[in-house]
Design brief:
- The structure holds two protein chains of two kinds.
- Chain A is α+β, with helices and mostly antiparallel strands.
- In chain A, helix 6 crosses helix 7.
- Chain A has a six-stranded mixed sheet with strand order 2-12-11-4-7-8. In chain A, strands 1-3-10-9 form a four-stranded antiparallel sheet, with no helix packed on it. A two-stranded antiparallel ribbon of chain A has the order 5-6.
- Chain A has seven helices and twelve strands.
- Chain A folds into two domains: about 190 residues, Immunoglobulin-like, CATH 2.60.40; about 45 residues.
- In chain A, strand 5 and strand 6 form a beta hairpin.
- Chain B is mainly α.
- Chain B has one domain.
- Chain B contains eleven helices and five strands; from the N terminus they run E-E-H-H-H-H-H-H-E-E-H-H-H-H-H-E.
- In chain B, the strands form two sheets. In chain B, strands 1-2 form a two-stranded antiparallel ribbon. In chain B, strands 3-4 form a two-stranded antiparallel ribbon.
- The chains are: A alpha+beta, B mainly alpha.
- Strand 5 of chain A pairs antiparallel with strand 5 of chain B, so a sheet runs across the interface.
């Protein structure tokens, strides 16, 4: 019985003959008042209990911010004025999404696996709910990718994962300053011949800290107190300014 | 030095904000205006989300109008009774304005609404001011003394619910001041302005108040209307960014003091014509943005923030 169990263990572990172990230079990103973007260094190794099969090992690294529903508006000319006329709700779009690959995207992961693991940027966005009168819903999700790519919020980084000796790999991903906070998911996929061999995910905690966190939380949890505080600060500043300048004028 | 704004969730240069506050402060000190109508569009231009710009600017105006009103209270150039009547309309108007603002926000049309309001009001006020001050300059150059025209019995005197306003020396109906307050309150909530640039001419031409109490009374009621607007935006949209407000404030209060020094060296007509040109320039810039085909036709708004 025990022998059978051991046999079973060996056979299952041989099914995932290669697995991934990773490390990061930081598991937390603190958004402080002077936050000006961040760089995350991801590194890891491929663990093998037998010689590597034929074909080069490839690595895909993705980092995804929290997904949220967004509205995408398109302008058109009405009575000479450019105004939003069509709106498509995108059910879930990550606020940040970077995908780095060890070679060209299509040679690292094949289309079936991309569809299954939702790796490429268009697949990471989930869009349903386009109204019936909007025929070209795809151009709206294209627009999301275009706008967010320009801001560095969506990144496709081909050939940016370095692999040494088919075992050690590392990459670095830049986060722009304009990111929102939440749990970011870092995902590492090992692929061989375009097929996923192993997957590993971990959480990067992106949080506002200190005063930023205090103010943001207060504005959401206690909006009336926050509003009153804003006014109090404004009144005080106005009073202090007039006092200060009267003092300067009299001296 | 980049600074991350906690509510707007964008990173901007702190010195840029201080500078913007300073420049608008100088202008507001020079011309005796709140500067909201310049600051809010400038905040759009540097990439602050419009909803945050409008709400935060309302908060900043609380500070500048409080500072200004203190000076007028000392000089006794505030008609408190008139201020309170205007305020009744103003608070009501701010409430209505916010309902309109939030309704259009849910339709994704709030940017358009805010910009159209800017184009319409800046266009009208700017051109009226320009024509009026040009006339004044031409008159003083030709050496003509402007004739004192006795104003006919105004509408404000004919309507019921009359009340005596001692400081202004008026005995008029309360309906026109409440309506003026209402209109300015609506604009305050939608445009993120104090509304002084509409309130002041309305007080002079519609209510017939003496010029010396106009600015003080306008500032007095603006404190409360913009304060109320701040609370409304903070509790319904969570869009008041206190860090942004403080940076603008610092630049603004310092700038305003320098501005009022410069202002005393220029003649009143010259000042007004400069202000008129500036108002028209901002109006044209916003109008062009609406008329010229934008390079990016698509925009993203956060559905969860509704």
């Amino acid at each position: 019985m025990l022998r059978l169990f051991l046999l079973f263990l060996i056979s299952t572990s041989s099914a995932i003959a290669e697995s991934v172990v990773i490390g990061m230079d930081k598991e937390k990103v603190a958004i402080t008042a002077t936050f000006d973007g961040s760089q995350i260094l991801l590194f890891g190794a491929v663990k093998r209990d037998k010689p590597a099969p034929i074909g080069d090992i490839q690595v895909v690294v993705t980092i995804a911010g929290p997904s949220e529903p967004i509205s995408v508006h398109r302008k058109s000319k009405v009575l000479g004025i450019w105004m939003n006329t069509d709106t498509v709700e995108v059910d879930a779009a990550p606020s940040f999404y970077a995908v780095a690959t060890s070679s060209g995207f299509s040679s690292t992961i094949n289309d079936t696996e991309d569809l299954r693991y939702k790796v490429s940027i268009p697949r990471a966005i989930r869009s349903v709910g386009a109204p019936m009168d909007v025929l070209d819903a795809a151009s709206f999700s294209d627009a999301v990718i275009r706008i967010r790519s320009e801001k560095g919020l969506y990144q496709l980084l081909e050939n940016k994962v370095n692999i040494d000796e088919q075992t050690l790999f590392r990459t670095s991903i830049d986060m722009p300053a304009d990111i929102s906070d939440g749990d970011y998911t870092a995902r590492i996929l090992l692929t061989r011949n375009g097929n996923v061999v192993d997957e590993f995910t971990t959480i990067i905690d992106v949080r506002k800290v200190g005063l930023e966190r205090f103010l943001f939380n207060m504005s959401r949890e206690n909006p009336l107190a926050y509003g009153l505080m804003s006014i109090a600060i404004a009144i005080f500043a106005g009073w202090a300014a007039s006092l200060l300048f009267r003092f300067f004028r009299t001296t | 030095m980049q600074i991350y704004l906690p509510i707007a969730e964008v990173s901007v240069n702190a010195f840029l904000l201080l500078g913007l506050g300073g420049v608008v402060g100088i202008l507001s000190g020079m011309f005796g205006v709140g500067g909201g109508f310049l600051m809010t569009p400038l905040l759009f231009f540097i990439g602050i989300p419009p909803a945050v710009a409008v709400a935060t600017e309302a908060n900043q105006i609380v500070a500048s109008s409080f500072s200004g009103a203190l000076a007028h209270l000392k000089r006794k150039t505030v008609d408190l009774k008139m201020g309170l009547i205007l305020l009744i309309g103003g608070l009501l108007g701010a409430g209505i304005g916010l309902i309109i603002f939030n309704y259009l926000k849910s339709l994704g049309q709030v940017d358009l609404l805010v910009k159209l309001c800017y184009v319409a009001f800046l266009g009208i006020i700017g051109s009226l001011m320009f024509i009026e001050s040009l006339r004044a300059i031409l008159k003083t150059q030709s050496g003509l003394i402007p004739k004192k025209v006795r104003r006919p019995r105004s509408l404000a005197q004919q309507l019921p619910f009359k009340m005596r306003f001692r400081t202004s020396g008026l005995y008029i109906s309360v309906i026109p001041p409440i309506l003026v307050g209402l209109l300015v309150g609506i604009l305050s909530a939608i445009m993120g302005v104090g509304g002084g640039f509409i309130m002041v001419p309305a007080m002079i031409y519609i209510l017939g108040m003496p010029t010396k109490v106009v600015v003080g009374t306008s500032l007095f009621q603006i404190i409360f209307v913009t304060g109320f607007t701040t609370i409304l935006h903070a509790t319904t949209n969570y869009t008041v960014d206190i860090a942004l407000a403080v940076l603008l404030l610092l630049g603004g209060v310092i700038g305003a003091q320098f501005g009022s020094q410069f202002g005393t060296r220029l003649r009143a007509e010259q000042l007004r014509i400069l202000l008129a040109l500036m108002v028209i320039a901002v109006c044209l810039k916003i109008a062009l943005d609406l008329l010229i085909m934008p390079t990016e036709l698509y925009s993203i708004s956060n559905a969860s923030m509704h």
